[in-house]
Design goal:
The structure is a single chain. By secondary structure, this protein is an alpha/beta fold. Helix content is 47%, strand content 13%. The chain is built from 15 helices and 12 strands. A 6-stranded mixed beta sheet has the order 6-7-8-4-9-12, with helices on both faces. A 4-stranded mixed beta sheet has the order 1-5-2-3. Strands 10-11 form a two-stranded antiparallel sheet. α11 links the parallel β6 and β7. The longest helix has 27 residues. InterPro entries: DNA_mismatch_repair_MutS_C (IPR000432), DNA_mismatch_repair_MutS_sf (IPR036187), MutS (IPR045076), P-loop_NTPase (IPR027417).
Amino acid sequence: MLLQTDSQTIEDLRLFSRQDQKGIYELYNNTFTRGGEELLESMFRGPLSDLEAIRSRAAIIGAFGKLKTRFPFEGWLLDNVEKYMLQAKELNEGKKPDLSEKETAAGVGAVIELFHLLREFLEKGDLKNITGLENERAEVMSVLNEVSLTPVFKEQAKAKLSYAASTAYDVLFRVREKEKVIRVLQFIYLIDVYISVANVAGKYNFVFPVPQPKHSGVLDLEGVYHPELKNPVANSLSMNADKTVVFLTGANMAGKSTFLRSFSTALYVAHMGFPVAAKRMEFAVMDGIYTTINLPDNLGIGASHFYAEVLRVKKMAIELGSGKSIFVLFDELFRGTNVKDAHEGTVEVTRAFAEMKTSRFIISSHIVEAAAELCKKENIGFHYLPTVMNGAMPVYTYTLKEGVTDDRHGMIIIRNEGILETLKNGNKNG
């Protein structure tokens, strides 16, 4: 089963690169093959929502990490095989090959060499010690032991073949047993991804989260940080059946959005069975993750920012109404309307979220006055990111604390930047 999410969440978490910055996918991508890159991307676009599937994938990656397994194939060899299999059209037996004699010989030779290396890896490599890959290993070994492929292992790897032999193997690989060759490549891509992510975990000291059943309701992150920051400040936050909603406050530039991305990125990646940027993490498997951090105006339908927010909340209501266990995050809920409506809307929607006890919610807001009404709900927790004043200069600690802050330093920042003086002087000059 796959975790439910959407393009808004993928964009919010910056999972994939944009013109101005790399994405989380690029951080984890240490693959050697094109097929591995594509498989890794599909994993990022389709996290898991099945407890055993998450546990299994994490255990396999962790095992490769402990063994410090190296990818046993050269990148250029896989490139040659991929080009040979992907560029060619299917052949009908007896027809002239659609590749040149030289290209055919190179492709056939690459497949033969790959099969020899793969068999050795299956028989003598680290795969023998990886729990969870027994079925895949046995299946691929069975493919290699097919009678039709017996001649392959009678050949010497890297040996020069005659034209007749090369042509015969070409028909074998690209027509008769094409699906078997593709299956072998798919297995190699999977191993590529697992070893790649294991290496990333070791390089950055990421940890493997501990998944728990959905009904447990636990969501406990210690020392979580954003993996793309050079000097991140780690924070900790726990949610459970007694605290299903977190109301987050803090001044502009205090680090709310960064913390929200750090927390939700870790939860998203954890559902892939991947290691995360944290000291420790335990989480109940969810049915879906939806974030709203940078919600654009929907000009295509003539929707204002506020109406886009309303539609987003409505979508969450529909998802929650089906009884699913969902993580929902809103950064600055109802920022697109006036303070009075934002206050009332924030209170009412957050209260409604608090009734959904099987889901988890984080709502950040500048409407700190809403906390006085929300504190009546026992399962709403309050956290803030503080600002310390050094004279007239605000200093941001980026360290999460319990409680509510009424820090407002917008005008201080405006004055410090000399905007009012610039406007006055400009008026005089005019």
